[in-house]
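Lab meeting notes turned into a lecture example. A postdoc, R.K., suggested we walk through two folding results consecutively so the class can see how the record format repeats. The first protein's sequence and structure tokens come next.
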Amino acid sequence: MGSGYTVLPELPESIRNSPGFKAGQEMAASGKGLPPQYVAAIEHAAGLVRRWVSEHPAAELRWLRWDQGDVFLAAAIPQGAAYLADSPDAFALLAWLDEQGPAPRQLSINMAGWALRLARIIPMPDGSYWSGETPS
């Protein structure tokens, strides 16, 4: 399996002006981190991601990244996938993840992003992976 990034030199205006992006910036600025039920949904999604990746070992996963950090929107996966995926396999993974249902809650593209980090598919901007502790 290959995984990498296509770097966006600038965020499209549709992302910068989206309610999800602005809400994410406000949450990050508050320093509160993610609620426990949100983290539980991410852990559930990470398990699903690991399963998909094990069933598709030759998949080439390419993701979009803004040069000032990873961009994940608080949008449902079908609407938000265009802002994260940049290869047919990446779109297929996100579509499959969306088909798995809302357990324990409806997954968002932001949750998918954290799940990909927890499943060690997408590294954090510093090259490390998320350990599952509540990110701020």
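The second example is placed directly after the first for contrast:
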Amino acid sequence: MKSKMLGQVLTAVLLLNGAAFAAVKQSPAVPKTDAEIAARVTHEIAMYPLYSMWDIVNVQVADGRVSLSGAVDKPFKKDEIESIVRETPGVAGVDSQIKVLPLSPQDDQLRLRIARAIFSDPALSAFAGLAVPPIHIIVENGHVTLTGVVDSELQKTVAGMRASTAGMSFGPVVNNLVVADPPAKKKA
């Protein structure tokens, strides 16, 4: 009786190990081209739970080596994002030029004021409910830069105007927003 139970247990263990091996074997393929690696790394960064509208990380890949640039608002985010990228399949190495923005209550206040001004506008309010809106608000020592991608030239203009009128910034707001797929200009 005991040997029969032991045989059944061993069979179950072997079946479970076989299923686990099959699951590992079916895991997503390792990216091979630089474009595939860039897409995978960009996705992994976007899925990082602490990546927010106050951060911007740009990704470039050459021969499997990933170059990171941009800025984050907390020092630990830089280290964690670099670690996530290093662990991404297909990455041969990481060169990080991510800047850590100064920790400043005044900059934090300005970020919030600008976000409220931008996302309360009817032209941009649809972005307000997103976990990471496509408009990133980078504030460094009172200087404001908007980055990211919007759907239209109108949204880009409105975001820049709203950020400029939120007050407390030192100098003009730099509007580096990009319009996704702008309409082709008609020839006259």
